[in-house]
Amino acid sequence: MTSPQNGGDVIDVLVSDHRDVTALIGNIWSVADPMIRRDLTDTAISELVRHAVAEEMYVYPVMRKYLDGGDKAVEHDVEEHKELEQTMKRLEDLDVSTPEFDEALRALETVLADHVQDEESEQFPELRRVVPHEELVELAGKVETAKKLAPTRPHPAAPNAELFHKLVGPGVGLVDRLRDKLTGRATK
Predict the structure, then answer these.
(1) Is-contact 58 144, C-beta < 8 A?
(2) Sign of the torsion formed by the C-alpha atoms of 181, 169, 36 and 85
(3) Coil, helix or strand for 176?
(4) 85, 96, 116, 163: which sits with the fewest CB atoms below 10 Å from its CB?
């Protein structure tokens, strides 16, 4: 895992998250046992929600500030986050042994792949080019902290906004982690 402590910046952290979640989804496809599939799915959902919240809190404001067309890029990314949240909510409610689950997982995988492609091929290289390295390293710490406090479950009706996540997100995250503990839901 890359972190500010070992010289990594926010882009290293986000790319690592992308790899981890993509690998988790790959594992879901390769496992037949329903309990393991559910645990892997819950973990993937938790990690993806926390990643998205951290991006919305800290990375998107930087994109708006530094990137040409940053507002448009952020709007597109937020729309993808909303689509991912709706799909994750469906996955939470579906039996992992059904064709509907596989359909929803495939939809999640497709939107996520597009999102990762946009970020890693266009936005992240541009951020590295225009944002001072020290700021990117500082952002890594903020993103890691935000992920620890963020919700672990999708909340598609909640605003995808920096202020909402900073004011309400930690409380929602606390409630989600309590629900996870009480229900035995797998999270990282």
Answers:
(1) no
(2) positive
(3) helix
(4) 163
Rounded to a whole number, what is the largest CA-CA distance in the chain?
48
Determine the distance from the C-alpha atom of residue 50 to the mean position of all C-alpha atoms in its chain, rounded to a whole number. Answer: 5
* pLDDT digit string (tens) for the chain, length 188 residues: 444 445 599 999 999 999 999 999 999 999 999 999 998 998 899 889 889 989 988 999 999 999 999 999 999 999 998 999 899 999 988 999 999 999 999 999 999 999 999 999 999 999 999 999 999 999 999 999 888 876 665 555 554 544 444 444 444 544 454 555 555 655 55
- Number of C-beta neighbours around residue 134 at 10 A: 9
3-state class (DSSP) for residue 155: coil
Q: Is residue 96 within 8 Å of residue 38, measured between CB atoms?
A: yes
Determine contact, residues 123/63, Cβ cutoff 8 Å.
yes
93, 103 Cβ separation under 8 angstroms: no
Under DSSP, is residue 32 helix (H, G, I), strand (E, B) or coil?
coil
